Amino acid sequence: MRTFDLAPLYRNTVGFDRLFSLLDSVGGVEASPGYPPYNIERTGETDYRITVAVAGFTPEELVIESKESSLTIRGEKAEAQESERGQVLYRGIAARAFERRFQLADHVEVKGARLENGLLHVELVRNVPEAKKPRTIAISTGAPQSAPLVEGQVDVKAA
């Protein structure tokens, strides 16, 4: 039986969680993390949070850009002077540049971002306009009301 790996779509979208939850339950797919690792969380009815592990990056070295329905997080480490820090014998902490893109659902907007303990938290909210929200339509009963005829007025329906 063939299976389709939807992990790349699921990892890079926010606000489509119902669709992907359904597809994941059918296919039993697991996401494979890349660099840098990240989480996508639903924190409320219309609130989401993307958390990206950016240990070693300063706020000046990170760029968050929201354009149309896309969110891009970029990091580029400034070159450190070897003489200032000493000689590096082993480099296990990744300090390479990265760019991570996320597709946002309709009406998802970035509220803000904060860097805390090596984690970049990007807060998102889904603001659906009133015109797009479901509304209840009142149901009337009986025949439509018509105004009574005034003396001298001719009933067009009867003629």
Rg from alpha-carbon coordinates = 28 Å
Derived from helix and strand composition plus strand pairing, the structural class reads: alpha+beta
Number of strands: 8
CATH class bucket of the domain at 34-79 and 91-131: Mainly Beta
Write the CATH fold name of the domain at 34-79 and 91-131.
Immunoglobulin-like
Strand content: 25-35%
Order of helices and strands: HEHEEEEHEEE
- Helical percentage: 10-25%
- Largest beta sheet, briefly? 4 strands, mixed
Put simply, the count of helices is: 3
Going by CATH, the architecture of the domain at 34-79 and 91-131 would be: Sandwich
Largest beta sheet: strand ordering: 1-6-5-4
Catalogue the unreliable spans.
25-32
Spatial separation of the terminal alpha carbons: 72 Å
Rounded mean pLDDT is: 77
Give the overall shape, derived from the CA principal axes: rod-shaped
Structure characterization notes:
The strands form two sheets. The protein has a four-stranded mixed beta sheet. A four-stranded antiparallel beta sheet has the order 2-3-8-7, with no helix packed on it. Strand 2 and strand 3 (47-53) form a beta hairpin. The chain is of the alpha+beta class and 159 residues long. The longest helix has 11 residues, at 17-27. It has helices spanning 7-11, 17-27, 82-85; strands at residues 13-14, 38-42, 47-53, 62-67, 70-75, 98-104, 108-116, 119-126. Residues 25-32 have low confidence and may be disordered. The chain has a domain at 34-79 and 91-131: Sandwich (Immunoglobulin-like).
